[in-house]
Amino acid sequence: MATALTAQSGTGQKTFLLPDLGEGLTEAELVRWLVAVGDTVAVDQPVAEVETAKAVVEVPTPFAGTVAQLHGEAGSTIDVGTPLITIAEVTPGDREATRGAAREATPGAREVGASAGEEYRTEERAGARPPSQPSQASGSGNVLIGYGTPAGTAGGRTRRRKAAAASSAPASVTAAPPRTTAPEQAVRVVSPIVRRLARDLNVPLSLVSGTGPHGLIMRRDVESAGVTSASQGATSASPGVTSASQGVPSTAEVDARTGLGVAARTPVAGVRKAVAQAMVRSRTEIPEATVWVDADATELVRLRADLKRRDPESAPSLLAFIARFVLAGLAKFPELNTRIEGTGDGGQQILQFDGVNLGFAAQTNRGLVVPAIRGAHTMSARQLDGELRRLTALARDGKASPADLTGGTFTLNNYGVFGVDGSAAIINHPEAAILGVGRIIDRPWAVDGTLAVRKVVQLTLTFDHRVCDGGTAGGFLRFVADAVEQPGGVLADL
């Protein structure tokens, strides 16, 4: 990383700069702060939750001390290398004074403070991990952008006790009333995406019943609760409020160009901003060409059905088989597993890889992302199927790391799941090609001079014309199509 990770902010203060969170990303959106000014933090403790173009991640602090300043508000965009948080170092004298003040505080005040702190901590860690804590002799193991965890560092968030205020509080305040009801069950949420979705839909998580393991609240639970809440709100809406079908309310914004009401304004940020920038760059820099072919997938569908009948749990998906055929094709036509790079003197060169990291397009609640199966060329169809399922689940749950969503050398796009027959996809910059797979449908097909109904799929290859000519692209696409039509012969050689 070119920029410094820290900056001195004055005597006893250090400022942590937003680091490069992977793949040279230049900015991140601040989702929320995990600490507040005045909090005491430990080394490697997460202090902020940020959303990059690739994933939502927690950013740990490399410093211990007291939070002096938070640089930025939730929802704002912070550039890499600019201040994120300023930490005031805690001296040994400050720590001893804090301990002494805490010992002098009245029991009632300590009980009130502990109750509030416990409620805060319970909400933050609800459902995130088992209550067991790492040993004090070893670090927590969290490592991000070059920072390790020193031994003997305790994790966890603590609040500074305002001991003086507590000791001078009236007697009626220092004595906490006895608990008369059982403590409430902590909200079971792990994914920050689920929490953010709940905030966007104004759905209280405490009222949502989780359908995941052990009552874990999933995205579908929040979406279902949001639909229910919206329908109830529509039923009880005021008669003075008009719907879109009834006309635009008099207080709504009107677009000057069309004269229509403006229903919403959505900032282009996060994944949507990254996708937009990548697509523009791909169209601007890559002279692309597209070739396509229809393939008879009847034998492949039959093969997969036979495997599923014999072993329902581990039969590879059709996409896993096609991925295996693609990898075999790239071994024969390596020109498509490349990328164009500048040489620094104004020239260009073609970088060819020893292996394949196979990317695949996955539609998620955050938008379209492309997880990459690293070392895919070494995997069988069963292994590819496992990785496709694992990475898809991580992406859709918002748990995929930047490393999971970067590093691809060739992309496979299965748009057939959306009921689409064909598409000229945009290359995932800076790769050189992308293969699209349409839906498999029954179509009339000539077999040995006789018309028959067969399972047909359209395969579309979009490629960078700088790295190869049409003969190479056509040869690769024909190889994959032949493998789809006669899978047994190809799989026998893999």
Structural commentary:
- The structure is a single chain.
- The protein is an alpha+beta fold.
- 30% of the residues lie in helices and 22% in strands.
- Strands 11, 14, 17, 18, 19, 20 and 21 form a seven-stranded mixed β-sheet that branches. A six-stranded antiparallel β-sheet has the order 1-2-9-7-4-10, with no helix packed on it.
- The model is unreliable at 105-177, 179-184 and 234-250 (pLDDT under 50).
Instruction: Examine the coordinates and then state which fold CATH places here, giving the name of the CATH topology of the largest domain.
Output: Chloramphenicol Acetyltransferase
Domains, number: 3
The tally of beta strands, per DSSP, is 21
Q: Which homologous superfamily in CATH is the superfamily of the largest domain?
A: Chloramphenicol acetyltransferase-like domain
> Main sheet, how many strands, which sense, barrel?
7 strands, mixed
CATH hierarchy class name of the largest domain: Alpha Beta
Ends apart, CA distance between termini: 41 Å
Helix percentage range: 25-40%
CATH architecture level-2 label of the largest domain: 2-Layer Sandwich
What's the Cα radius of gyration? 28 Å
What are the segments in which pLDDT stays under 50 over at least 5 consecutive residues? 105-177, 179-184, 234-250
* Number of DSSP helical runs: 12
Identify the overall geometry: globular
β-strand percent reads 15-25%
The secondary structure category is: alpha+beta
**Mean pLDDT over all positions:** 78
Domain Peripheral subunit-binding (PSBD): 189-226
Domain Lipoyl-binding: 13-88
EC number: 2.3.1.-
Biased composition (Polar residues): 227-249
